[in-house]
Amino acid sequence: MNGKLLRTQGVTAPAGFRAAGIKAGIKKSGKADLALVFNEGPETAAAGVFTSNKVKAAPVLWSQQVLTTGRVRAVVLNSGGANACTGAPGFQDTHRTAEELAAALSNWGTETGAIEVAVCSTGLIGDRLPMEKLVPGLTEIVHELAGGISGGTDAAHAIMTTDTVAKEAAFHHDGKWVVGGMAKGAGMLAPALATMLSVITTDAVATTEQLNQALRAATRLTFDRLDVDGASSTNDTVLLLSSGASGVEPSQEDLDAAVLAVCDDLAAQMMADAEGVTKRVRVTVTGAATEDEAVAAARTVARDSLVKTALFGSDPNWGRVMAAIGMAPITLDPDRISVSFNGNPVCIDGVGAPGAREVDLTGEDIHLVISLGIGDAEATIRTTDLSHAYVEENSAYSS
Amino acid sequence: MNGKLLRTQGVTAPAGFRAAGIKAGIKKSGKADLALVFNEGPETAAAGVFTSNKVKAAPVLWSQQVLTTGRVRAVVLNSGGANACTGAPGFQDTHRTAEELAAALSNWGTETGAIEVAVCSTGLIGDRLPMEKLVPGLTEIVHELAGGISGGTDAAHAIMTTDTVAKEAAFHHDGKWVVGGMAKGAGMLAPALATMLSVITTDAVATTEQLNQALRAATRLTFDRLDVDGASSTNDTVLLLSSGASGVEPSQEDLDAAVLAVCDDLAAQMMADAEGVTKRVRVTVTGAATEDEAVAAARTVARDSLVKTALFGSDPNWGRVMAAIGMAPITLDPDRISVSFNGNPVCIDGVGAPGAREVDLTGEDIHLVISLGIGDAEATIRTTDLSHAYVEENSAYSS
Fold first, then answer.
1. Is A394 annotated as a binding-site member?
2. What angle separates helix B305-312 from helix A388-395, to the nearest 10 degrees?
3. A306/B231 CB distance under 8 A
4. Which of A204, B115, B205, B216 is the right S-S partner for B249, CB 3.0 to 4.6 Å?
């Protein structure tokens, strides 16, 4: 597939999208906290994937309803509060947000119903949103909508919580159509803190079914395989919106590849900016009986606190990798397992390799490869080390 | 049941047992590293439970074979090396350890076969044991065997790795028979670092079947519900040995209760001494559909890094508890969940309670109770916070 990926552009890179990010006063810090992504059309097909957590935030419950229509005109996102565990009043706040935004867009000239407005929230769980600040912001942000690249960048900044950098990516296919995206957080099935949110846009012409297929295939291989600490939020949401403004109808294969490229790059950016990260770690399991078992094994190792603290200490402690893999719910034969760090064998057929304790892991990137020697399937999970900074940041978040 | 529990006595509290602990030179630090528990009889019935990790250390593979006979004459334990992931040569080292100890005991006057000798090891995974130091120690330690309380205490010290205190407990039943025990580590299904090892002794008259029942019932409620970091070792072993020296044949109910009392106290001691602990945390789930679901839910919360770092920060961040419980593989209704910290309600029917953010968690003991409102089953998991000290200790262990 021909095309190029840029990190300097996001959701407004494709034609037909405007975006904005403003300071509505939701965050006590005074930083930007309200974002809007608006689809000018001509089409409004959309797809979404949501958290698997049984405790779902009000905006997730609402947006799931919106997505059953297969159409999204606008996505409004706030940081500074997750609006989770807030009961019926919290759901009413989300509903009102969609209604007020729809009214503002209608007044602005684009007739919009609340059911066309997806809502995403991120921040501390359990507190009500300050609606007296959020509602005026909804009118203000509609007037800030800009079609240029800067609108997307403003939106990407306004959804940040503990992120230290905004995360954007855009894939230009042959100069004819584009997929753009923004994200915040550090994981899909396993984000740190409150939430992983991402909005992906495209000007390709595509049906809701085509968008669904592309989005599910891409998230399965990217956000779902980013696992910082095994925790999954109440608010995780990834949305894919199509304006069709390019007039180009790509093949499903090309659409899948472009959406995958954007999601993969956003996932890499999230890993690099994860809370307290000092090491960017990829855990690859090869020779598994099935891809599902490879994922399960890599995830078990990626979540193991003893492996993660060892990597923080640049310690090639492969015994902890063996102990972790032995707890994975998969088929294995301990005597066939081999392990390498950054290409250096440390364990061969279940026994330590010469020089294993001397492998240098002081660099920032660690690729841990575990060969099970059972079958042909493989998978990679992106993760991080477990550092003092992780403990520090997460022990002082709400207070 | 009448009786009393003492922490000043261990495996030699029951009649018919001798023990010792010596410095064999296995540990580079020069600290005690070899322990022996010897059953003088007249009986040698025994039961054991072992790690569920698929990667099992050589001493586990050996001792599982020994326990199939239902009899154990002696348990030899070393710290300073786990003898795990050491292949066939490592297994030969364990076998030789049992043979050399059996020979030393036979020379000393008690005819013993290698198949009567259980072996336990703890320490770094992946290195061979220094047999040139261990083997001479086996003869030496037989001559150090002492029947008094001090022998048990010496043994309890010699199995320590990152433990800061030796862990012993003895339950005296009506002054007629006794269950004594020692342990090291911080968990059974989920220990920190290399291993949880425990040897329990009794002078009650009991069959292998009775011991098995008592041991499995006790470990299920104690060591299995201690979960410091979700990691499980290659070496975990709990053994229960009976000498029958009291001549008293207790009811199964009394035996179960006495073994449970000792295991429960040892588990509490392990929680209090877990790596990097600054908070002793109990997570109780009530109102679950089944006891298994209560355990699964409590374990999910107890393993959640975001919950554990919040507790380290004395932060009553109940939203993280809700997010964690939502990932548990159980039946739940978010709107029926209530949460309390140390008796203070922080979440009622899925919504924050007044004053929830002000609950004082600065003390060392935290009892987190989650009511699911689904059924009548409940369970408690003991765990700890996730602290800087945990990261420090585990990032600098092997190097």
1. yes
2. 70
3. yes
4. B205
Beta strands across the sheet bearing B74-78:
B17-22, B34-39, B74-78, B117-121
Residue B60 near residue B50 (C-beta atoms within 8 A): yes
**One-letter amino acid of B221:** L
Q: Does B268 lie in the same domain as B284?
A: no
Which of A214, A237, A272 marks a domain boundary?
A: A272
Q: Are residues B291 and B253 in the same domain?
A: no
pLDDT (0 to 100) of residue A306: 85
Percent of chain B scoring above 90 in pLDDT:
73
In the annotation, is A195 catalytic? yes
| Residue pair B121/B78 in contact by the 8 Å Cβ criterion | yes
Name the nearest CA neighbour of B74 among B109, B41, B96, B51.
B41
Of B256, B272, B288, the residue that ends a domain is: B272
Q: Compute the Cα dihedral for B269, B273, B278, B284 and give only its sign.
A: negative
Give kind and range of the element (H or E) at residue B90. Answer: helix B87-108
Q: How many residues does chain B have?
A: 399
CA distance B5 to chain A (A): 34
A106 assigned binding-site residue: no
Is residue A232 pLDDT above 90, yes or no?
no
CA distance A120 to B23: 62
Q: Which residues in A lie closer than 8 A to residue B82 (C-beta atoms)?
A: 319
- Domain count for chain B: 2
Residue of B nearest to A361 (CA): B399
Among A194, A316, A309, smallest CA distance to B231 is for A309
Which chain A residue shows the shortest CA-CA distance from B388?
Answer: A388
CA B383 vs. chain centroid, Å, equals: 13
Look at residue B240 and tell me whether its pLDDT is greater than 50: yes
Inter-chain CB proximity B394 and A233 less than 8 Å = no
A58 in B contact zone (CB under 8 Å): no
Give contacts of B309 with chain A, Cβ < 8 Å. Answer: 390-391, 394-395
Domain that holds residue B346: 280-395
Stronger pLDDT, A41 or A232, i.e. the higher one? A41
Chain segment A6-60, per-residue pLDDT in tens: 999 999 999 999 999 999 999 999 999 999 999 999 999 999 999 888 889 999 9
Where are the strands (E) in A207-354, listed by range?
Answer: 237-242, 280-288, 338-341, 344-348, 351-352
What is the C-alpha separation between A63 and B214, in angstroms, rounded?
53
Enclosing H/E stretch for A117: strand A117-121
CB contacts, 8 Å: A125 with chain B: 317-320, 322-323
Where residue B271 falls among pLDDT bands split at 50, 70, 90? confident
pLDDT for the residue A323? 85
Q: Is A348 on the interface with B (CB under 8 A)?
A: no
Is B246 annotated in a binding site? The answer is no
ipTM for the predicted complex comes to 0.80
Q: What is the CATH number of the domain that holds A208?
A: 3.60.70.12
Which one of A305, A359, A361, A386 would you mutate to disrupt binding with B, by most B Cβ within 10 Å of its Cβ?
Answer: A305
CB atoms within 10 A of CB B359: 18
CA A16 to CA A37: how far, in whole Å? Answer: 11
